[in-house]
Design goal:
The protein is of the alpha/beta class. It contains 14 helices and 20 strands. 36% of the residues lie in helices and 21% in strands. The strands form four sheets. Strands 7, 8, 9, 10, 11, 14, 15, 16 and 18 form a nine-stranded mixed β-sheet that branches. Strands 1-6-5-2-4-3 form a six-stranded mixed β-sheet, with helices on one face. Strands 12-13-17 form a three-stranded mixed β-sheet, covered by helices on one side. The structure holds ligand BES, manganese (II) ion and zinc ion. The site of manganese (II) ion has 4 residues, from loops.
């Protein structure tokens, strides 16, 4: 996706679709009035007739208008005096987004009355448009480039351009996450994921990438991670990304993304219905890569490490069996009662590995449990944390970005569900509170760290007829990194 900021007169903008938000005609902006004059007052006439002006939700699509370069114009009603808050702005934009996706328009310009909004509000509006434009123009099969042009009265406004660039970085990050997550498992192996990470380090000089193979992981005693990779012929990878943009030796924020490129369940084989959706079991990894691509084109005063344990989970003659006991990198032993609870096994070693970076915080992102889908559906990501302040700032970022999370408790009472006579921990905790016992399992490897866990099993993709990745929670995490509010 690309974007421009322009100050052109409205009749001069060469795009497929020109969107003009219209307050009550008496508050209409100078540029609209000029355009209207050029069209013999056709626009104001039709706006009045159809009651568009000053009416949020009202809109009319016009084609092939004389003297106008844009192929179509969408007049949309906005608040009476043209000043709208975020919620009015979203309502104003909804018909635009619907038209863009319906008409499959790839080059769109939108006039934004900047007025004098608060910075935060303008940033949120901007992020909202870019995100929605990305969604409206996305197709996995037909990848194409779309361009959003923002028309303002003052393109030299430095902060506007900077904010719009941030919106674009967010949209492009989301797009990368979607594209990777949507790929079938045969086209998105651990090795391919590692190559995608290397591409990022080629594209952005603030990003460095290193990739560990199984021999190197074995040396570090990442045995629970390797136990998942035991049954597949695809070599597992541990991908480590570094965004070192803060000169101040700031401790890094570590993002750990679950990268199971296909989860068959292993010996505890999943039922076949919807098993194809387990190609999405690397959506956490895709999220980390999307966040890094956005970071690469932004200049944030943070240091971020990404850790992606990448493997398939497959059954085989040599695969891990229920009842096997494995010593994790931390030294804690784990009884694997269900080989389908593999996410926590690759994440626990990754969290242990994260300690080497002396992190400020560790956040893992994982399509971890079906139970989380049952609990929260597709609207909220499940959030668990051992630090209330961190949890609060993640929740706040979710609200800010419209990419919400909801917190679940990690009370020690839940821990007893993981007790076993054969190891320090069992990898499953029975039928009840499955999202929490999975989180609790991870918390046992995060002692002494400020840690949070995002269970995105319900939010990372849509099932059914609309089956596609959502790009969540890239927006939540970027908001968090931009604000680093956890202190
Ligand atoms: N990747 C799945 C979780 C999942 C399932 C996400 C369905 C989205 C939709 C995970 O590895 C898994 O299989 N979890 C098991 C855990 C159980 C064996 C304790 C689950 O949720 O059934
Ligand atoms: Mn599984
Ligand atoms: Zn899984």
């Amino acid at each position: 996706m690309k974007f421009n900021v322009k100050t052109d007169d409205l009749h001069n903008v060469k795009v497929e679709l020109l969107i003009i938000p219209l307050p009550s005609l008496k508050y209409a902006g100078k540029k609209f009035l000029e355009l209207d004059k050029l069209c013999n007052h056709f626009l104001s006439k039709i706006a009045r007739e159809k009651q568009i002006d000053g009416n949020i939700g009202a809109n009319i699509l016009l084609h092939s208008i004389d003297y106008v370069s844009a192929r179509s114009i969408l007049l949309v009603g906005t608040s009476k005096n043209g000043n709208c808050d975020l919620s009015d702005f979203k309502k104003t934009m909804q018909p635009c987004i619907n038209q863009i996706s319906k008409l499959k328009k790839k080059s769109v310009a939108i006039e934004i009355h900047q007025g004098n909004p608060k910075r935060d509000e303008f940033e949120q509006k901007c992020n909202f448009i870019f995100k929605q434009f990305e969604t409206a123009t996305y197709s996995y099969k037909k990848q194409s480039n779309s361009t959003l042009t923002i028309l303002t009265n003052n393109s030299s406004n430095h902060s506007l351009v900077k904010i719009a660039k941030q919106g674009l970085a967010l949209a492009n990050g989301i797009r990368l996450t979607k594209n990777l997550a949507n790929k079938p498992a045969n086209l998105c192996t651990p090795t391919i994921l590692a190559n995608e990470a290397k591409k990022l380090s080629g594209n952005y000089k603030s990003i460095n990438v290193s990739v560990m193979n199984e021999v190197q992981m074995k040396k570090l005693k990442m045995n629970t991670l390797l136990s998942v990779a035991q049954g597949t012929t695809q070599p597992a990878k541990l991908i480590v990304l570094k965004y070192s943009n803060s000169k101040k030796n700031k401790r890094p924020i570590v993002l750990v993304g679950k990268g199971v490129t296909f989860d068959s369940g292993g010996i505890s084989l999943k039922p076949s219905s919807a098993m194809d959706e387990m190609k999405y079991d690397m959506a956490g990894a895709a999220t980390v890569l999307g966040v890094f691509s956005a970071l690469g084109s932004m200049d944030l005063d943070v240091n971020v490490i990404g850790i992606i344990p990448a493997t398939e989970n497959m059954p085989a003659g040599n695969a891990t069996k229920p009842g096997d006991v494995i010593t994790s990198m931390s030294g804690k032993t784990v009884e694997i009662l269900n080989t389908d609870a593999e996410g926590r096994l690759i994440l626990c070693d990754s969290i242990t590995y994260a300690r080497k970076f002396k992190p400020e915080v560790v956040i893992d992102i994982a399509t971890l449990t079906g139970a989380c889908v049952v609990a929260l559906g597709s609207h909220a990501t499940g959030l668990m944390s051992n630090n209330e302040k961190l949890a609060e700032s993640l929740l706040k970022s979710g609200i800010n970005s419209g990419d919400r999370a909801w917190q679940l408790p990690l009370w020690s009472e839940y821990g007893s569900q993981l007790n076993t006579n054969f190891a320090d921990l069992a990898n499953v905790g029975g039928r009840t509170a499955g999202a929490i016992t999975a989180g609790y399992f991870l918390s046992q490897f995060a002692e002494g760290l400020k840690w949070a866990h995002l269970d995105i099993a319900g939010t990372a993709w849509n099932s059914g007829a609309n089956k596609l990745a959502t790009g969540r929670p890239v927006a939540l995490l970027l908001d968090f990194l931009i604000n680093s509010k956890f202190k």
